[in-house]
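Suppose you are handed only two things: the residues of a chain and a line of SMILES describing LCNOYBR7. What would the bound structure be? This form records exactly that question and the answer produced for it, so the two can be stored side by side and reused later without any lookup.

QUESTION INPUTS
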Amino acid sequence: MTLALGCIADDYTGASDLANTLARQGLRTVQTIGLPATAFDLSGVDAVVVALKSRSIPAADAVASSQAAAIWLRAQGAGHVLFKICSTFDSTDAGNIGPVTDALRASSACPMVVVTPAFPATGRTVFQGNLFVWSVPLDESPLKDHPLNPMHDANLVRVLSRQTATGVGLVPLQVVEAGVDALRARLAQVQAEGCGMAIVDAVFDRHLLTIGAVALGYAVSTGASGLGLGLAAALIESGRVTKADPAAETEAPMGGHAAILAGSCSAATLAQIDVFAGQGPVLRLDAERLLADSEGQVAEALAWARPRLGAGPLLIASSAAPDQVAALRGRPDAGSTGHKIEQALAAIAEGLVQAGTRRLIVAGGETSGAVVDRLGISGFRIGPEIAAGVPVLRALSGQGPDMLMALKSGNFGGTDFFRDALKLMP
Ligand SMILES: Nc1ncnc2c1ncn2[C@@H]1O[C@H](COP(=O)(O)OP(=O)(O)OP(=O)(O)O)[C@@H](O)[C@H]1O
Ligand SMILES: O=C(O)[C@@H](O)C(=O)CO
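ANSWER OUTPUT
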């Protein structure tokens, strides 16, 4: 059996978000961490999401790792490759959405790439090329304060044009609303005008069904989970995949200690930490001290955690409010602070697992990447959905520790997310 859909995600939470969407739509989906090191049994699998940590690395490195993933996915039979980006279009003028899309387009001789980060289930909609996060334009949303890629422009045609040499067209909502033929015609038109990519508007899931049906006709597309939903529906509709029942698999409880690690400084995660503080022990790490003496702070955090683990879930966070994050950004070593904090949280994760933690929730995409890499996990099967975009993940047995995880995108989940997650991670 060959793969119906190959996906390359630019971070690990984004990968599990997409894998969740594909599984809920009825695709048998596996998430791998990077490219599998050894031969990988894909029997019965419809879609693979290769999770990369390529969102915030130099563009040339992101291109190289994405190209390698695309080659592998195509070798497994994937007729279409979706490049999964963040639903808030996290990127800078240097990339990496434009450069990676350019490279995937060139290597598959794809004349036009549909690009849409719309994901209505989490309030991300695109209208006239402008990205909204619930009711506010992207540049007025909490993403304006992001520690790594503050977003100051909601107009995605402009944002993407700064990242690529090819023209970026726009397919407005009225065209998508008119259906697949109108969308195909508009894409042909923008291509004739010299564009190699087009931002496509979408406000409701029905728009993503139209977009998915059309995007499947090209070799490559770029988007968030909403586009995944459309592509999955199109694969089932066309008969290329037989719909699976996502609730069919039941799993034995994992047991072991439970812990939460937060490195996301998003508004949603900050609120979730505050709510959890009323339910269990919370250790708030001081970023300045963490940067000055990482080893000492990691040791202190583990000394705090070990005697508490047996009593129930606990939470350790480096997360801080926008003013503190901004203060850190003013330091001369600002370029490396995020990475250092991620590594400290990864070291804490490792210590927690050594102490018997088998259920681990991580908030933040970059943070999740560092943690999963440190734990040596090579892939996940997709379990029940905790909140839109966040599934329970079961580490593939025999590779890395046997455990349940939830990798929460910074801005996802309701205020009681951590308790909701723990209920589904027995
Ligand atoms: N107190 C802090 N001050 C500044 N940066 C921090 C602090 N705590 C964590 N960070 C860094 O901020 C970045 C947060 O990125 P991360 O991807 O983990 O979360 P996010 O962007 O909110 O989530 P997502 O990418 O899933 O939307 C990481 O590099 C993390 O190390
Ligand atoms: O699309 C999203 O918003 C998330 O899956 C994500 O990528 C956050 O890192």
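WHAT STANDS OUT: Residues 26 and 245 are 6 Å apart (CA to CA). The chain has two domains: 5-244, 248-423.
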